[in-house]
Predict the structure.
Amino acid sequence: MDWKMFIDGDWLEAESKETILVYNPADYSQTGTIPRGRGVDVDKAVLAAKRAFYSSAWRAVKPHERGWLLYDMAKKIREQKDELAMWETLDVGKPLKQSYADVEAAARYFEFYAGMADKILGETIPVEPGLVDFTVREPVGVTAHIIPWNYPLQIGARSCAASIAAGNTVVLKPAEDTPVTALMLAQFFDELGVEKGVVNVVTGYGHEAGAALSGHKDINHLTFTGSVEVGKMVMKAAAENIVPVTLELGGKSPNIVFADCDLEQAVEWVVRSITQNAGQTCSAGSRLLVEASIHDAFVERVKNKFEELTIAPGAQDPDIGPILTEKQFNRIISFIDIARNDAMVVTGGERYTSGECMNGFFLKPTLITNVDPTSRLAQEEIFGPVLTVFPFETEEEALELANGTEYGLVTGIWTQNISRAHRLADQIQSGQVFINNYGAGGGIQMPFGGYKQSGFGREKGIEALRNYTQLKNIAIKFQ
Ligand code: NAD
């Protein structure tokens, strides 16, 4: 399928007419092309969004009517769930049931923020007799959204829905590898008759379209989800224009397992949290911290589970699909090579090429023990189905290990001792803490974001609306 970009209510090629090929990571077959948008195309999209934001037509839309638009999006997403899930699997490679979960999460984002559209409230502030002081939360204007390749539908939906609910207009740039479902969202908006320019989707490479968007002087807010390295670049670009940014970056999230926990549950979630989307998840539970007294037994259980997992193209709905690209696969293997010398690979660590997996880059889930907590294996985001294990003796040691990386996105704590769980949650440096669960099925309502290098600002929940509103104080004197 040859896709076009959605700009100012029209479906356009790139000004240059150039395109980028899009592949199915399961077998490297070509699934279509997208326009190679660059600065000139980004300009068109941002100017369309700016025009739309100041247009009387968009200003006349009442908050609850913006809510109706978003409810209609949720409905459309559910109606088209099979097609959306199929494309998400074709683009990203993820198992079909995970794509269906992403489709439902996307619908839930639209639904949640639909309900919020007419509940963005200000405050009245007591100052002095004869003065009425109040605040209003206004939309910021044009919001730019640069999203990664691993959860394009969910992540595109989560920030655009919040932004539109608040009354902004948006320009979305999906990753060049996985653009299709973001374009399908644009298609749905188009079918619903959204005002021209309110929603724009520009495709292209990060260093071209992405860089042009993050440095554009006419955007008023930038939401970036992706790597730390690119996050720093977009933040610098936005700083030139004094544009606020929300950064959702990587992670090296721990599951902390105490001997008194429900072991069955803990094993299941530890495995799931590192193998979902083949470990290509920002909030993957990529470090297992386990109390020394159960270390060997727990590792054995995880190893057995890993070896039971099915590996196949996402369309066959296995447990694990392919790694997105050869480059990403080789990066993961380079970490496993380090482990072979400096640590111990308990299971996995090899490419899987059986049957229909011959042409894609599939990796057996990999369990690594005897890891030095200061090593690259322990500190860097590997972004694959690779779990590193660290024993601990005391709660203090567990805390030190948990907080001992530059990241701070999510932490899981597994224990029946509720006081200990609270003590740890209190001192953990991460944006989300899960006790006796992990990830909790997406948690549309739960604010999500990072401490330290995992970023700042919060997506999801009511909290995200802060990104997309600015506060005005109005003081009225009366006699
Ligand atoms: P990436 O940083 O390479 O790319 C993210 C997006 O930025 C893409 O759309 C890309 O085209 C664009 N981009 C690339 N270079 C750019 C530039 N110079 N200027 C502007 N935009 C540019 O990340 P990725 O490989 O797509 O995704 C993986 C990373 O994203 C991981 O680190 C993962 O942890 C992180 N991530 C974080 C979250 C979260 O919510 N915290 C969610 C998903 C992924």
The first strand starts at residue 5 and ends at 7.
